[in-house]
Amino acid sequence: FTIDLLRARCRGDMRTAVLLMGQRLDAYPRSLTAKRQYSAVLLHANHPRAAQKVLSRLDPELDPLGGYTREDVRGAYWWLMAASHHMLGDYLAELAITDRWRDSTSWAWRMIRCRALGALGQEREVLALLQTMATSSIDSVAEPSLTMATELEVHGHHATAMAVAESILVRLELGHIADSGRAMGIAWATRLL
After folding, report:
1. Helical (H) or strand (E) element with 189
2. Residue 62 needs a FRET pair 20 to 30 A away by CA distance; which of 73, 104, 157, 191 works?
3. Contact, 183 vs 177, CB < 8 A?
4. Is the distance from CB of 155 to CB of 118 less than 8 angstroms?
5. Helix, strand, or coil here: 69?
6. What is the number of other CB atoms lying within 10 angstroms of the CB of residue 58?
């Protein structure tokens, strides 16, 4: 299924991608990896309710790790579940995930919390959470911060989005632009402004 799945995704044929991952899950119904991957492809294909149904059969606290750490399993599970709530516009449920899975050291946790707070219009809380990343290197915070600026813009919080993008742009421009990641970050921030 792997080559066909990659081909389908590269072509934007999400219907085929969902079908192939569903066949994989049917072939390996007890496989946690198949369940996780199927839920992820369902989200990418804009089927958040179906993804939630698959995810509801998983338990990030009890499922076998399969070579991953418990933190990785939790992070992947809660990221997917939060994304499904966000796609459905259930931002309070998305925020509740960060109350249940409290790991402020995790970038995924911070992103989920910021995304939900931004959608709920709690701009001050978003800025406070982004401020906790201010001492980290710009290379590690540019993408999450610009993702949040984009989320704020999408949810109608233009002034806050611009403030975040501008602060990241200033920090990116202070460094060496030879790095392609920095160049992409500068282009992204500039587009937001």
Report:
1. helix 180-192
2. 104
3. yes
4. yes
5. coil
6. 18
28, amino acid identity: Y
90-119: string of b/e by CB count within 10 Å (b at 16+)? bbebbbebbeebeeeebebbbbbbbbbbbb
Q: Write the DSSP assignment of 3-68 as a string of letters.
A: HHHHHHHHTT-HHHHHHHHHHHHHHSTT-HHHHHHHHHHHHHTT-HHHHHHHHTT--TTTS--TTS
Residues 89-116: what's their mean pLDDT?
88
User: Concatenated DSSP letters for 145-179?
Assistant: HHHHHHHHHHTT-HHHHHHHHHHHHHHHHHS-TTS
The residue with greater pLDDT, 166 or 67, is: 166
* One-letter identity of residue 39: S
Query: Which residue do the tokens 């790790």 mark?
Result: 65
Residue 176 reports pLDDT greater than 70: no
Would you say the C-alpha torsion 47, 48, 54, 55 has a positive or negative sign?
positive
Looking at residue 177, what is its pLDDT? 63
Encoded tokens for 141: 């915070």
Give me the chain's average pLDDT, please.
88
Given a cut of 60, whether residue 58 has pLDDT beyond it is yes
